[in-house]
Amino acid sequence: MRSWHPSPLTHHSAMLMRLVLALSLLWAGQAEAQQELTVVGVLYVSGKDYYLETEDGDVFTLIGDELTLYQEDLVLVTGTALQRDGDMPLLKVSSIQPYEEGVHEPEAEAEPEEPGGPETL
User: For all residues of the chain together, what is the average pLDDT?
Assistant: First the structure.
């Protein structure tokens, strides 16, 4: 009985397809692991690392500029959350500012005004 052996071309083609599939799954997983976040918390410094602890007890490692200006302050941070296996989430900061109660609350959407302005009687 004769056994079938794939040709080297078939073998390389199959390996290439598996590599493409693995890379596409890896890329898709990274895309899903990144999300834009806006969080409020206290900024702490430990050594060279910056951490943000939220009111809920969540802790993020921060990377970005101007972090030294807000040590142990309550801040509003917007950035991209990057998921890291086995570690606390990493937040790449795009903006940071002091947080003031009531100032940064989401605004209620105003009713659109009628064309022509308000009516006068």
Answer: 74
Cβ contacts of 74 within 8 Å, gap of 6 or more:
40, 41, 42, 98, 99
The number of folded domains in the chain is: 1
In a domain, 65, yes or no: yes
Q: In terms of residue numbers, what domain contains 75?
A: 35-98
The model's pTM is 0.55
- The angle at the Cα of 86, spanning 40 to 77, to the nearest 5 degrees, equals 15
Whichever domain contains 65, its CATH number is 2.40.50.500
pLDDT, tens only, 53-103: 988 888 889 988 888 888 888 999 999 888 766 677 888 999 999 988 766
